[in-house]
Request: fold
Amino acid sequence: MKFLPFLLSLSLATFGLTPSNNVCHAKTDAEPLNVIVILVDDMGWTGLSGYGSDLHRTPNIDQFAERSMKFTNAYASASICTPTRAALLTGKYPARLDMTIWHEMAKRPQQNKKLIPPVVENNLPHSETTIAETLKGAGYKTAHVGKWHLGEASHYPETQGFDFTFGGCFWGCPATFYFPYRGMYGGGSNRHYRYIPGIDSTEDREGEHLTDRLTDEALGFIERASEDPFFLYMSYYTVHTPIEGKPEIADRYAEIIEPGMDHQNAHFAAMHETLDENVGRILEKLENEGIADRTIIILTSDNGGFIGSSEGQVVTSNAPLRSGKGSLYEGGVRVPLIVYWPGVTQAGSVSKEPVATMDLYPTIASILGLSMEGQFDGMSLTPLLKDPRSKLDRDTLFWHYPHYYGTTTPVSSIRQGNWKLLEYFEDNRLELYDLNSDIGETKNLADSMPHIAKKLQQSLVDWRKQVNASMPKPNPNWQAER
Ligand SMILES: [Ca+2]
Reply:
């Protein structure tokens, strides 16, 4: 196993853009490329049939993947929603932004655990230059449709470079996926009345599903913008809870589920199918508008699949990966990523290179030949998109989640080559896995290969220092016996 010297790996981890003279312009300046980023919420690595689901049927996305580049080692920059979304819009590690948990928890860390998580940033700071602001500055019309979850109203999409926005709000999911999308949601002290802004409940839309509605709004934007270059951040609320598939589709899945299948939830499967139909509608719209050959499309997820229960039923499994949303095991962070760069990505191409959400902003800017100012943790994936056999000049990725979730205690992790190390803060436990031979992270090699574990841990410690990562503190009121 090859290890880059520590200093080199750190400098590469914070490497910014490739120089713009490397940018390949697929089209003439007269026809600038449009950009669509489709972000699915909580879709696991095996959520799509083209990524191995044994239940969900996603033919439109699978066909789209077949004419694009598919990444098999793509990661969300975090194991939960908000930090990954911050990384997508800024090109930075969530830990550098100090956005490592969702808004509702950021200022009120749990006090009843062995460690007290840090108080962290709860709004995406206006001082950050988002990808929308960069593209708007380059003459793009910009739209955000769907889930936002990057802060309160003073930090909504309108304040972060988006000309048009629909459906975004403070909350991480709707009370219901059915019109008019409002009602009480959540448990205990987190139970609140939730609503999707901008919905006229007097309209005759009974039975309308939010995934369809978001697409309607996005297609309207594309129609209005098609004379000008546009950037659409299509941020579906699906397939997050509440698990509400269309009943007629869910019924169909219920009939074909068999014991032993990894995926067992008919409504969750139906949500994937409806997502797929809607991605199909977007692709069809681009064809009809005559802009399919000049629109970059990127599809990915913000974290791994949720392995908890909803309505008394387990939502999903990320097998063969370990664990799910919240955890820094592969099941919590490895996600599908499909990139279509017209005229450049080769049909059926696959990249096995480890990449992450924060790479998308530098990638888009690089493709469009736009300069980016400031410091970025992500790097442009254009070399990979041009040649699936190529490698990035980067060997290391980091994650930091100093909070609790149903699947984890506070933890950081590092992937370097095929090695993955997790450092758990409650007991300073190290876990080392060789992803090449053990993708399920079943055999902890930390004790048998201490030199590798120590070396990776040192890189992780140095990285946390470099990005000024917030850390949990011991809880003085914690009693181990309780
Ligand atoms: Ca999510």
